Amino acid sequence: MTQTKDTPAKMGGVAMVTSCHCRFRDGRAMCGAVSSPSSSDPSKQCRQFSVNQNRSCVTHGARSTVPISMSSVYHQCTVFLVLVHVLTMLVSTSHAASLSRRVPKTIQQTAVQFLSRYGYISGPSRELDDLRAPEDFENAIKRFQRFARIPETGTIDHNTLAVMAKPRCGNKDLDGTQGIFSRRKKRFTLAPSKWENKRKLTFRILNYSPDLSISETRTAIYNALYVWQRKTTLEFEEKIFGEADIMIMFASRYHQDGYPFDGQGKVLAHAFFPGEQRGGDTHFDDDEHWTVNSQEGIDLFMVAAHEFGHALGLAHSNVQGALMYPWYQGYQENFELPYDDISGIQTLYGGRRPQPDDNFTPRLPQIPTRSPDEPSSTPPTGTPRSIDPEGSIPNPCTMSYDAVAIIRQEVYIFRQRWFWRLNKDGVIHGSPVQIHQFWHDLPTHIDHIDALYEDPETGKIIFFIGDRYWKFEANSLVNGFPKEGRPLSEFGLPSDVKKIDAVFVWSYNKRTYLISGDMYWKLDSKNVAEFDYPRDMSVWRGVKLPVNAAFKYWDEKTYFFQDQFYWEFNDNSMAVNHIDPKKSSTKFMRCENAEVNSAEQMYSASLNNAVEHSGSRITSSAVVLLLLTSILLSNDL
Fold first, then answer.
1. How many other CB atoms sit within 10 Å of the CB of residue 366?
2. What share of the chain is helix, strand, coil (3-state, %, to 5)?
3. What is the mean pLDDT of residues 210-232?
4. Are 67 and 8 in contact (CB under 8 A)?
5. How far apart are CA 180 and CA 49, in angstroms?
């Protein structure tokens, strides 16, 4: 195809260029000049240029007879080159975006859940839904791909999905804030804690897998511990009863530690780093098919040896073949601890000289039956409350809070069987009032409130007590709601959640959050827990556990309570505003820094009010006050 653009002849003895031709060869446009016979060097008059994969010199394949100077042609084609470059970038970007959009939403949700669970998306970003820009998600995928030693494409490709689907340990790969890569000097990675000043650690096996005999289970556990003992100065001793440094158990799904298992496949086990309470504890998913010395099923020895590495203070390694590599690598006959793991554990505890019993075969002690006075190994479902049997009124300037909520713009503070009401001017006269004198539909045996909140959508008041909840409209039970309450499982919580410690509506997203122990759930618009919860309370940095109460105050800030203190939370930084606790009574009860005199005066006033309002001796003014309050609440609905 050739396009000719005629040009006027130059005057003054300069060669006369009559036309400019564009010919296409191998996808490139070559433009040249044709001149009159008097032209001495027409190629100098008509510049030669090329445009990659375009036909800038062609106007829809038609011949052009428009006169045009060579400088004009060059200028126009230069502009066209720039436009082509910009369009190429836009098409490329659009293509990449379309590829991203082609990933099914369910797969992308699964990927986000995986990246969050294993530390590739940091805690604050996770709860703030802060992956708004595509590059944030792409960077999280790249961090995972880098750790897994697969090509860093930044997309959810086949390799990425395949690795995500492999059976693995439930512990995080990265620390969730700065990432392991930013501080990795060696391939092995150390956890934030170790067993300080301890060389003899105790362990206890709480229960056994039905897949294996007791002897097979114990042999696998002993051998797994001995993997680490051989290379360090540590020693292990079993305890049959009581507490131990490393408590070992088989469990299914939610098992009251904030990290529920997911059924057969994927997460096989998890362990806690050294420390108090759960530190060192190691849990195996009882839904897995556990085996020993076999490529069939999941080999208990290999998984236990890995988990005990966590219990001793090692995090995950990205070295394939290392014991602390997070993905299950199958049964290995005559297993020897790899160099990467030896370097890590000896950094923590030093090395052991070769011992005569390096080919140690564990001695299996006789298993006694459980002592009659030995408490059950089932973890407790809650801490019993200390309730004064006579129901004396707690001192509002020294007490801790069971529950706090804003109802109809007033602050309600609950302690045992009493509650106080506060407005902008302070404690409302007539406080405290017994719970049953106001919410008379609650069962008579109830002597405290665990948590409560006012549903921002319906205005209903939801009470949480033990493993059940009640729904009120003002001070009356919602019509048709059973007086014995309904189970917490209706919120989508596991059936063995026995208590809600706190509930609050977060000002950041207006969503309702439930806290139980060291985990929390976010409810959707239908008041059902969202699919990727529970999550660990460590996301709410600086909040002390266990939480006694939490609520959104008039200032739209969230406050968390423990004992007699509170912490104010900063939504933007996802951390408390102050590390040191502050007295709850000073801010909320206005106890003038909780000085003794002021506290005694307020306590005395509370006693007087309670005497007036207690039992059958409620005065007429108290009855009027309660009725008026009830009417006002009903009108507000």
1. 5
2. 30, 20, 50
3. 94
4. yes
5. 53
207: helix, coil or strand? coil
| Predicted confidence (pLDDT) at residue 607 exceeds the cutoff of 80 | no
For residue 588, give every residue at least 6 positions away whose Cβ sits within 8 Å of its Cβ, in sequence order, or none. Answer: 404, 411, 413, 422, 566
DSSP 424-474: TTEEPTT--EEHHHHSTTS-TT----SEEEE-TTT--EEEEETTEEEEEET
| Sign of the torsion formed by the C-alpha atoms of 146, 152, 158 and 159 | negative
Buried b (16+ CB within 10 A) or exposed e, 22-52: bebeeeebebebebeeebeebeebbeebebe
Where is 5: in which H helix or E strand? strand 2-6
| Residue pointed to by tokens 């076999």 | 294
pLDDT tens figures, 65-108: 344 444 454 455 555 554 545 454 444 444 444 444 456 777 88
Q: Phi/psi at 514 (nearest 5 deg)? A: -115, 135
Place of tokens 């051989």: 230
Rounded-to-integer distance, Cα 404 and Cα 515, Å = 14
User: In this structure, what DSSP letter does residue 8 have?
Assistant: P
Supply the pTM of this predicted model. Answer: 0.53
Q: What local confidence, expressed as pLDDT, does residue 592 receive?
A: 74
Per-residue model confidence as pLDDT tens digits over 18-71 = 444 444 444 444 555 444 444 444 444 444 433 333 444 443 343 443 444 444
Query: 341-361 pLDDT, tens per residue?
Result: 999 999 999 987 555 444 444
Confidence of residue 187 (pLDDT cuts 50, 70, 90): low
Catalytic residue of the set 307, 410, 457, 556? 307
Are the CB atoms for 263 and 254 separated by under 8 Å? no
d(CA 260, CA 254): 4
Question: What separation in angstroms does the CA of 523 have from each of 464, 490, 493, 527?
Answer: 15, 11, 10, 5
Q: Is 235 an active-site residue? A: no
Kindly tell me the burial class for residue 460, based on how many C-beta atoms sit within 10 Å of its own C-beta (0-12, 13-18, 19 or more). Answer: middle
Spell out the domains of the chain, with CATH numbers in brackets. Answer: 2-99 (no CATH), 104-165 (1.10.101), 200-349 (3.40.390.10), 403-636 (2.110.10.10)
- Main-chain dihedrals φ then ψ at residue 32, nearest 5 degrees: -140, 180
